[in-house]
């Protein structure tokens, strides 16, 4: 096994964390990384890596990812995409990146992996869900997205499943919870505020919460399905090691484990960790569009199936996550 891994979207925050995690993964010995994104990614210092600036919406640059000095990858992490609010605001761009480019990636993986199917790990989202939902989502719950981002992700999921069914690839589809707390600047994701109401106040910066008009608003009881960055990255790596025969026979979809937290519970954790001075930096201006989209996403999932595959879940709710982010700020890494 060559342990050559291609990561698209590698210049992003998660892509960078994943590259570092693979380098230190004891099950991925002597890993070699092909890192690609719309801007040239940075490689881990200790890694044997090729970094590429590439237009991932065109066939020629995608094919070039399979022709580097490191050869054909045996595993692909397909992380690139246009985020939720960005997809909603620019429908055509969302389709081009979240559907068309994934199809091109799949076709390239099929062609270059004809002798030995490539593991193709596709990051999807709980945004594939919408409409009337059961109290708790299970692997049998039908996905009916109510936004362009979820529609694009679900379309690409179907492609990954079909390419897997035909033996073109060894697909693994991981639907991510909302990851909190994300460092850096706010993204174009509809869920960006879920990190923002923790990140900015702990850094002494005012932030705007688009849910509710005050700290007492009932809208703050809006629940979300969340996971920490640390747990999410461990689950990314774990996705590479799940034996193909352990997945359900009819689908490669796995909803990664998470837990339910309301906006109010987030703010309570913020106050416990950062004090009232941090909480007072959160300002409110209700955004009905944002609230509608986030409200359409299911806040509760049955973790049984992913846990049976070896994935892990956060323990202790929001407070440990907020405390870890505070430590990251103090260490200068957030």
TrEMBL record:
The keyword Disulfide bond does not apply. The keyword Secreted does not apply. Residues 5-204 form the NAD-dependent epimerase/dehydratase domain. Pfam families: Epimerase. InterPro entries: Epimerase_deHydtase (IPR001509), NAD(P)-bd_dom_sf (IPR036291). Keywords: Carbohydrate metabolism, NADP, Signal. SUPFAM superfamilies: NAD(P)-binding Rossmann-fold domains. Residues 1-19 form the signal peptide. This is NAD-dependent epimerase/dehydratase domain-containing protein.
């Amino acid at each position: 096994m060559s342990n050559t891994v291609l990561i698209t979207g590698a210049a992003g925050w998660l892509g960078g964390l994943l590259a570092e995690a693979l380098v230190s993964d004891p099950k991925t010995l002597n890993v070699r990384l092909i890192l690609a994104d719309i801007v040239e990614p940075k490689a881990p210092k200790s890694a044997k890596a090729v970094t590429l600036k590439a237009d991932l919406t065109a066939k020629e640059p995608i094919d070039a990812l399979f022709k580097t000095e490191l050869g054909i990858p045996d595993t692909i992490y397909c992380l690139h995409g246009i985020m939720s609010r960005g997809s909603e605001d620019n429908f055509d761009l969302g389709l081009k990146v979240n559907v068309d480019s994934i199809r091109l990636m799949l076709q390239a993986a099929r062609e270059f992996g004809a002798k030995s199917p490539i593991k193709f790990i596709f990051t999807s989202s709980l945004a594939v869900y919408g409409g009337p939902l059961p109290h708790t989502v299970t692997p049998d719950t039908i996905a009916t997205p109510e936004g362009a981002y979820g529609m694009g992700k679900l379309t690409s999921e179907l492609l990954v499943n079909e390419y897997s069914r035909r033996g073109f690839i060894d697909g693994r589809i991981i639907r991510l919870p909302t990851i909190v707390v994300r460092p850096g600047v706010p993204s174009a994701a509809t869920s960006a505020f879920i990190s923002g109401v923790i990140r900015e106040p702990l850094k002494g910066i005012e932030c705007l919460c688009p849910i509710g008009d005050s700290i007492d608003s009932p809208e703050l009881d809006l629940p979300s399905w969340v996971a920490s960055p640390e747990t999410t990255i461990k689950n990314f790596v774990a996705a590479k090691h799940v034996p193909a025969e352990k997945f359900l026979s009819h689908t490669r979809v796995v909803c990664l484990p998470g837990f339910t937290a309301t906006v109010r519970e987030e703010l309570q954790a913020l106050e416990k960790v950062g004090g009232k001075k941090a909480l007072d930096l959160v300002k409110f201006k209700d955004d009905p569009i944002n609230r509608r989209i986030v409200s359409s996403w299911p806040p509760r999932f049955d973790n049984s199936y992913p846990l049976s595959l070896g994935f892990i879940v956060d323990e202790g709710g929001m407070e440990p996550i907020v405390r870890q982010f505070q430590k990251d700020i103090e260490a200068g890494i957030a």
